[in-house]
């Protein structure tokens, strides 16, 4: 298993950060691993909604089937996914409002036989991508 975490304090209210986070049409503007949603994002955005995402991890393309596992407006978006080579993924975006600022914490995990072989490199690559994503997200909403 590889687990990754990144956190940033963004100078924008949670409502603005949330709107950017769930604007699936603009994911490519801030999400460093995202390449496309072949059939669009989850519509409607609700627990158990399923959608496909094309991503690039460690320089390799991957198609992930995501399911929304948890949803709390302006607070939490949690997803679980299945990718190539039997890899299972989980992503959790948690927003903690503090007046006109918001702390955004992203937690991810990757499991499966293929992950065991490259867990260290995957963790380093994914952590870098999460931190880059948070910087870009902040740039869009601040």
Automatic annotation (TrEMBL):
Q: Name one Pfam family in it.
A: Polyketide_cyc2
Source domain of life:
Bacteria
What SUPFAM superfamilies does UniProt report for this protein, alphabetically?
Answer: Bet v1-like
Protein name (Swiss-Prot/TrEMBL): SRPBCC family protein
């Amino acid at each position: 298993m590889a687990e990754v975490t990144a956190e940033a304090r963004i100078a924008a209210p949670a409502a603005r950060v949330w709107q950017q986070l769930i604007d699936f049409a603009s994911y490519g503007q801030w999400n460093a691993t995202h390449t496309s949603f072949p059939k669009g994002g989850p519509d409607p955005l609700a627990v158990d909604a399923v959608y496909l995402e094309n991503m690039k991890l460690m320089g390799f393309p991957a198609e992930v089937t995501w399911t929304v596992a948890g949803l709390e407006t302006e607070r939490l978006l949690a997803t679980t996914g299945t990718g190539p080579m039997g890899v299972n993924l989980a992503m959790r975006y948690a927003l903690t409002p503090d007046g006109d600022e918001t702390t955004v914490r992203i937690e991810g995990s990757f499991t499966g036989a293929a992950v065991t072989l490259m867990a260290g490199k995957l963790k380093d690559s994914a952590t870098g991508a999460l931190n880059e994503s948070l910087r870009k997200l902040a740039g869009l909403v601040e």
